[in-house]
Amino acid sequence: MNPSLEPAIKMVIALLFGLLIGIDRQLKQKPLGVKTSMVISIASCLITIVSIESFHKFGGPEHPNMDPMRLAAQIVSGIGFLGAGVILRRNNDAISGLTSAAMIWAASGLGIAVGAGFYKEAAVAVVLLIISVNLVPFLIKLVGPTNLNKRDVNIKIIMKANDSVSRMIRTIENTHFVKLEDKSKEHRIRNLKIKDLDGERQQVSMVLTAQRKEFATEIYYFIRHLDYVISVEVEQL
Length: 237
Hints:
Radius of gyration: 26 Å
Order of helices and strands: HHHHEEHHEHEEHE
């Protein structure tokens, strides 16, 4: 490889790897898109190249403690600001964006690896990253344990003030909203909150752990037709 062209080739490879990460995130409409991912990978690659070349250019007997990867090491800590920016905490205490934050960190790692000349390792990492966020979750849903095939649903119920809240909660826990083969699979309610509202009304808020086959619409219509229920809000987390 021509030494004068090697830095440019490294950054092009980093661009391609960042493009793959960005396409995966953008297809899923996640915060990390194609442009952001490419910029992270290219910039990380550039900083790594500068760090290594600076060692060769300025290092020597008069600089015995100079570390060729010191500058590149700061990428890992600095990239945390971008990762924190895509992590969202909703008003129901649910946290989203962790995978995108991890992918931002991974994109910087790919840029560092390519900048340091570890092309094969970076290529293998890209393949494993794509598999880990796409194929593995699909296989878990297909053949994994039942507990791994559940998801959380946030439910807010406005109902007339009465003494049947406990009965309603037991009904939701023990009712399957779609026809399932294993009837022993019960729902689990956590983060239960009950408070009084004006006009003799009550608000019941809960997070329900349900099967992935049970759609939010089916849960909504079931609860909407329970006694004393005025309105329902269902959010799939």
